[in-house]
Amino acid sequence: MKATPRTVESVEVIKLDGKITIGSGDQQLREIITNAPNQGKTKILLDMSGVTTIDSSGIGELVGSYTTVTNRGGKLKLLHLPAKLNELLHVTQLITVFEVYENEQEAVKSF
Amino acid sequence: MDRDGERIEITISSRFENIELVQVIAEHLCENAGLDEDGSHWIGMAVREAVANAIKHGNKLDVRKKVNATFHLHDHELEIKISDEGAGFDPATIGDPLNPQNLMKTSGRGIFYMKTFMDQVRYSFAPGGGTSLVMTKNLAKGTGVASSKV
Fold first, then answer.
1. Per-residue pLDDT reduced to its tens digit, B15-26
2. Complex ipTM, two decimals?
3. I want to staple B54 with a disulfide (CB 3.0 to 4.6 A). Which of A32, B18, B58, B89 is the partner?
């Protein structure tokens, strides 16, 4: 998995590309999200448009990321969910947990 | 090739990078049987979860231990068996990920996804060790999350 961060109006927009699966990308995502609040980045928007494959471990890391950021007083939101990831979040009812946006400007303003 | 009587078998060592090999076989078998891309993907995902569990929880990442996968397609009925060399577990101890108490847990969704994408999921445990998971799916009934259980 590749993560490309950029800052937009104090929001850390992180574009994720590739796989978030067991043994490939799941731990990487955890490290990125754990380090962000340490660097003062508490508003995090994960752009998921480039995620090609995700499994239950990847979903678990998304949940863990949400909890980590929230527990440190921050917010984590999702942008551009691929259809299959959207379905995986729906069937597990996690879609009720995450704020999901299709428009980056709108997402950034929501923080 | 006789699609209705097709049988494929693969044995892998317990490495996460081998999961995709088994997943790809599942997806190709489904696509060759006439399933669309989405339907094949969800079955491939169920296989991915099963193999990941066999490697991680069954064989405890011991690369000397093997995971065996067999695919049998007969009369549109696909049966997939994933076997490991682990000590087994009690499926009743796996919590429901939809339970509000479990919603924010970082693990415990693999079996749920398998049950969502497949018609039937059952485990058997060999007396001397080793767990076998058998999943079935009727490919004629349609697949995918939207068309089956949700």
1. 999 999 999 999
2. 0.91
3. B58
